[in-house]
Amino acid sequence: MPKFNPLMSTTAKQKILIVDDEPDILELIEYNLKKEGYQVHLAHNGQEAVAEAKKVLPDLIVLDIMMPKMDGIEACRIMRTMPEFKNTFMVFLTARSEEYSEIAGFNVGADDYIAKPIKPRALVSRINAILRRNAGTEEVSDNKLEVGDLVIDRESYLVYQNGSKVVLAKKEFELLYLLASKPGKVYTREVILKNIWEDSVVVTNRTIDVHIRKLREKLGENYVSTVKGVGYKFEYV
User: Fold this and answer.
1) Taken in order 198, 199, 205, 207, is the CA torsion positive or negative?
2) 10 Å Cβ neighbour count for 32?
3) Which of 77, 81, 214, 232 has the highest CB neighbour number within 10 Å of its CB?
4) Helix (H) or strand (E) holding 206
5) Do 162 and 47 sit in the same domain of this protein?
6) Dihedrals phi, psi of 208, to nearest 5 degrees
7) Whole-model pTM?
8) What CA–CA distance (Å, rounded) separates 41 from 30?
9) Does residue 1 sit within a domain?
């Protein structure tokens, strides 16, 4: 009788779409992810990625950036405009190490960034972690999040830390709620400005920095991490 694999049972229904124009890379990633129990689908460029994603509705999409016909950045941008991919994890896979490539990826809605050359065990470990990223976040209702020792109540604009009430200013609260809604996801400054200060024309990056500093003063340093040159993410340490 085959040995029971608990990881296999939890990943068997999760679908991953791998998009790359290099057959060897597709084969390598497909082999290692199938060993973990994932359902793996393949595409060779951005156009195929969009079409295949519509058919299979994957839980996670791994996109190379530099591809013919349509690159990964454009494919991600297009899919992020579609309601069915609003909560789909999207990860960029690329050999390019320039900071602007990472920023461009996060600007169109990427959740993470994995650099080539690929190390199979590290890649699988990263993908496992991404798919479990929200496991520590429980949405108690449409207006309340529980993450770590925090309860974030959007209806009352209150935060409870270990049962004690923490009063935040309106924009501080909205910023925390945005970051905590997807722990580990990197939010660029542009995305934060659009979501929190959409109607303001005088807000600068400095405004975001000040609000992050105030959150850290009120909650401690263990919640919001800085991703240099990109933005911020929520991580309960």
Assistant:
1) negative
2) 17
3) 232
4) helix 205-219
5) no
6) -60, -45
7) 0.63
8) 8
9) no
